[in-house]
Amino acid sequence: MKTLKDCKKACKVKVIKLHASTDLKQRLISFGIMKESVIEVLEHSPAKSTIEVKVGKMRIALRAQEAQLIEVQKI
Amino acid sequence: MNQMQEKACPIIANHIKIALVGQPNVGKSMLINSVSNAHLHVGNFSGVTVDKTEVLFDYKNYHFTVVDLPGTYAFTDYTIEERVTHDYLCAESYDLIINVVDSTNLEKNLQLTSELMSMSKRVVIALNMSDEADKEGVVINAEYMSELLGIPCVKVSAVTKTGIEELLDAVVSVSEQETQESKLIFSEPVEEEISTIVDYLTKHKYKAVNSYRNVAINLLKNNKKTYAKLHDDPIWIELQPILIEASKHIELHHDSDDIKESFAEEYASFNRGIIAEVLKQEVIEEKKTLTEKIDKTLIHSIFGIPIFLFFMWSLFQLTFEIGSIPMDWIDAFFSWFGDTIGATIPNEDVRSLVVDGVIAGVGAVILFVPNIIILFIGIALLESTGYMSRVAFLLDGFFHKFGMHGQSFIPLVTGFGCSIPAYMSARILKNDRDRLLTLFIIGFMSCGARLPVYVLFAGAFFAPEMAGNILFAIYISGAMIGLVAAKVLKLTAFKGADEPFVMEMPKYRLPSAKLIWHTVLTKTMMYLKKAGTFIAAASMLIWFLSNYPHNLMIEEEYATKIEMALSKDAKTDLANEQAVAHLEQSYLGKIGKFSVPIFEPLGFDWKMSVALQTGLAAKEVVVSTLGVLYALGDNVNEEDNSLKTAISKNIPFASAVAFIVVIMIYLPCLAASIVFTREAGGIRYFFYLLAFTSIAAYSLAFIAYNVTLMLT
Ligand SMILES: Nc1nc2c(ncn2[C@@H]2O[C@H](COP(=O)(O)OP(=O)(O)OP(=O)(O)O)[C@@H](O)[C@H]2O)c(=O)[nH]1
Ligand SMILES: [Mg+2]
Questions:
Q1: What is the number of the ligand closest to the CA of B42?
Q2: Measured between beta carbons, which residues in chain B are less than 8 angstroms from residue A67?
C-alpha cells in the first residue's frame, strides 16, 4: 500500500482511502482530503517529520504519522 | 424554537441577533470590526478567536447583536473552541446566521455551509475576501448562487469595506422572512432513504420542531441529539431497523463503512455542482503562487529554522536598541515630574508617598513602554503575516521530541506577549492532555511584563552592545527550560499517545499598518492602564509598608550624629545610613528579613526577596518595588539615582543571574493564575503549577547562582 508518507517532494497523487480514526478522518475530510481528491507534496520539514501538502487551493501541514494513514495512488 | 421567537418578537421588535459562523481564518472577526467600531483580535492563522464575543451596533432602525464565534471546519467537536461554536448554534437563541466564507477557497468553505443548510435556520452568506478573489481572477456569480442555494449571498470585503451595507440589508430582509426549507439535494440513494423515513414519520404523526426532512437527515447522519430524542419515543422500535437498513444502503453506495464520511462525500459532490455553476476562474493560475515562492525559503528544510532564529534575534536587538533611545527621556521626565510635583507638596510624608511611592513605582514601569511596544509589534507581525503557522510547522518535529504538539507553538508565542490570552488560546489543541501540558509550559515563555526586569538587569550588568544578545539568550533559555519541563511532565504526569497534527497553512498576507497599529495600541493601552491603576496602588502599598512604622530612636540618634559630623560628605553618608536603617526596620523590611533565610542560598538580599514576592501580584510590580525600595534608601544621592545604577551598585552579579532565573520560571501573576486555573479546570491544577514552578525556579536559580559564583 502506497501512502502519502512515501511521496517525494513535488509529486502529485490521488487519495484512495483514509485509514484514520473517525475524528481525524472528519478533520481530513473537512480539509478536503477525501477519496478521489488530488494532493501535491510541497515541502518537508527537517528530518521529514512533518510535510506540507496542497489540496485544491489549500496548504496543509501534517505529520508523517498522519500521512501514513492516507492511502494514495500516483497519477 | 419558532414559538419562542414569536413570543419574543414584540418586545425586541427591532433587535436582530446574529451568529457569525464560518471556517477559521475567513475574516469573521475582521468583518465585525468593519461593520461596528469594535477592535476584535484579528490574525492570519486558524484559531485566533477561541471564545464567543458579542458586539452591538445600530444600522438603520435596527439594533444588531453580532456574536463572533470561533472558526470551525465542520460540525464536529474536534477542539474546545469548535465545541464553543457548536454548542452555541445548537443551544442558544439567535435570529439568523451569517455564514462567512472565503471567496478564494469557496469549495472548501461550502462544506460547512452545507452542514448549516441542514439546520433549518435562517442563513445569509457573506462572500468575504472579494478583494483577494478579484486579484486572483476568481469570479463568483453571487445572484445565481443565491438562487441555487436558496440563501442570499453577498460579496463583501472586510478590508476594503465593500458590500457591508448590502450584507446588512440582506440580513434585515431575511430576518423578516420565514425559514425556508434548504435546497440541499443528495444523491439518489440518500434521497430515497430520506423519503422513506419522512413517510414513516408522517404516518406516525411524529411531533418535531424541525421539518421531517431535517429529522431524517439528522438521523441518517447519526446526530447524537436527534438520536437521543427519538430513542425514548415509542416509534423507535420500528424506526431503528429502517435506519439500519438505510445506513447500509448509503454506505454501500459510497463504498465506505463510515456514515459520516459518506455524508461528507454527499456534501462535497453537491458543492462541486454549485461551484461548477457559479464560479469562473478567469486568469489561469500561475504555476507557483506567491505564497509558495515565499515558502520555498521560509520553510526550507535546512534554512527555515536558522531564519526563524535570526528573526527572533533581530527582534530582541531592536527591542533593546530602539527601546533604550526614549528611555533616558522618560527617565528624565519622571524625575523632573517628581521634583516639580514634590515641590508643591508641603507635607513631607505626603510628598514622599507621591514622589517616592507612586511616581517612582509607576515611572519604573512606564520606562519600559518603548521596549514593550516593539515586542508587541513583533508579535503582531508574526500573527498577521501568516508566518506563525510556518513556524509551528518548522518546530513541530522538534517540539514532538519533547512531547509537545506543533500547534502548541501558537499559544506559546502568544505567551511572550501576555500569559492570559495564551492560556485561552491553548483551546486550539484538540487533546486535553496536550492542552494541559501546554498550559503548564506557557509560564516559561516570559511575558511582556517580565521584559522590564530583563531590560533593567541586562542594561545594568552588560554593555549596551551586548544587552540585546543577553535579552535574546534569556528568552531562548526560558523557552528551552520550558521544553525540558514539558518532557519531564510528559514522561510523568501527562503520559499518553501522541495526537495527530494537521493544520492549515494560511496564505501570506501583507498586514495593513492600521491593523498592526490597533493591535499594538490596544495592548499598550492595557499595559499603561495597569500601570496607572494597579501598579500605582501597589506602589502606594509598598511605600506604606516600607515607610512605617517610624522609629523615633533611629531618627534621634542620627539627628545628633549628623549634627556632630564635620564634613558635608560625612553628613550625606550618615543620612544615607539613616534611610537604610529606617527601611530595614519597616514592615516591608521585616517581611523581607523574615523571608531572607529562604532566599539566602540564591544570594538575594531582602529587597530582592520582597520584589519577588510582590511580583506574584503582577510582574511589573517587581520593577516598581525595586524602584520604590531604591528610591527610598538612596534618595540622598542626587547625582545619579537611576534604578539601573542602583542595581548594578547594590546587587552582585551572581545574585542577579539567580534573580533572572527565578523571574523566568516562577508562578505567573495573579490574574494569569486565575485564568490558568479556569482553563485547566480545577484548583488542584493551580497547586500543581505552584509546586512545579517553585521547585523548578528554586533549584535552577540555586544552580545558576553557584555556577556563576564559580565562574566569576
Ligand atoms: N484581503 C482580505 N483579507 C482579509 C479580509 N478579511 C479578513 N482578512 C484577513 O484574513 C485574516 C483572518 O481574519 P480574522 O478576522 O482573524 O479571521 P477569523 O475568521 O475571525 O478567524 P478565527 O478567529 O481564527 O476563526 C486576517 O489576516 C485578515 O487581515 C478581506 O476581506 N480581504
Ligand atoms: Mg476571529
A1: 1
A2: none
pLDDT of residue B687: 94
Cβ atoms of residues B461 and B113 within 8 Å: no
Q: Which residues of A touch B399 (CB under 8 A)?
A: none
Asked which of B465-469, B563-567, B676-680 is least confident by mean pLDDT, the reply is B563-567
**Mean pLDDT of all residues in chain B?**
86
The verdict on B605 touching A (C-beta cutoff 8 Å) is no
- Which residue, by CA, sits nearest to atom 14 of ligand 1? B27
Give me the residue label for grid cell 478567469.
B282
Residues 2-31, chain A: which have Cβ within 8 Å of B?
18, 20, 22-31
Q: Is B397 close to A47, i.e. CB distance below 8 A?
A: yes
> What's the pLDDT tens digit per position in B277-333?
998 887 666 667 788 888 888 888 888 899 999 998 998 888 888 888 888 888 888
Q: Does A34 touch chain B (CB under 8 A)?
A: yes
Question: How far does the centroid of ligand 1 lie from the alpha carbon of residue A43, in Å?
Answer: 25
Q: Return the ∠ at Cα B538 (arms to B535 and B539), rounded to 5°.
A: 85
Which atom of ligand 1 approaches the CA of B158 most closely? 31
Number of structural domains in chain A: 1
Residue ranges of the alpha helices (H) in B446-507? 451-461, 464-492
Q: Which residues of A touch B105 (CB under 8 A)?
A: 56-58
Q: Which parts of B345-463 fold into alpha helices (H)?
A: 348-352, 360-366, 369-385, 387-401, 409-417, 419-425, 432-442, 451-461
Which ligand 1 atom is nearest residue B160's CA? 31
How many angstroms separate the alpha carbon of residue B47 from the centre of ligand 1? 11
Report how far residue B12's alpha carbon sits from residue B10's, in angstroms, rounded to the nearest whole number: 6
Strand, coil or helix: B100: strand
Nearest to B628 by CA among B499, B535, B555: B535
Rg of chain B over Cα atoms, rounded to whole angstroms, equals 31
Which phi and psi (to 5°) does residue B368 adopt?
A: -100, 5
> Is a pLDDT exceeding 60 seen at residue B557?
yes
CA-CA-CA-CA dihedral for B336, B339, B340, B342, to nearest 10 = 150
- What is this structure's pTM? 0.84
Q: How far apart are CA B366 and CA B359, in angstroms?
A: 10
Burial classification of residue B253, based on how many CB atoms lie within 10 Å of its CB (0-12 exposed, 13-18 middle, 19 or more buried): middle
The answer to whether the beta carbons of residues B38 and B102 sit under 8 Å apart is no
CATH number of A8's domain: 2.30.30.90
pLDDT over 70 at B12, yes or no: no
- With contacts defined as CB-CB under 8 Å, which chain B residues touch A34? 261, 264-265, 268
- Is the pLDDT confidence value at B638 over 60? no
Whether B515 and A69 have beta carbons less than 8 Å apart is answered as: no
**What average pLDDT does the segment B107-124 reach?**
88
Residue B5: pLDDT band (50, 70, 90) is: very low
Q: In this structure, what DSSP letter does residue B498 have?
A: P
Per-residue pLDDT, B385: 93
Domain that holds residue A22: 4-74
Cβ count near B569 (within 10 Å):
9
Q: Which of B415, B416, B423, B326 is nearest to B375 (CA)?
A: B416
pLDDT value of residue B484 = 92
Residues with CB under 6 A from ligand 1: B 22, 24-30, 42-44, 46-49, 70-71, 128-129, 131-132, 157-159, 384, 509
Helices (H) and strands (E) in chain B, counts: 35, 9
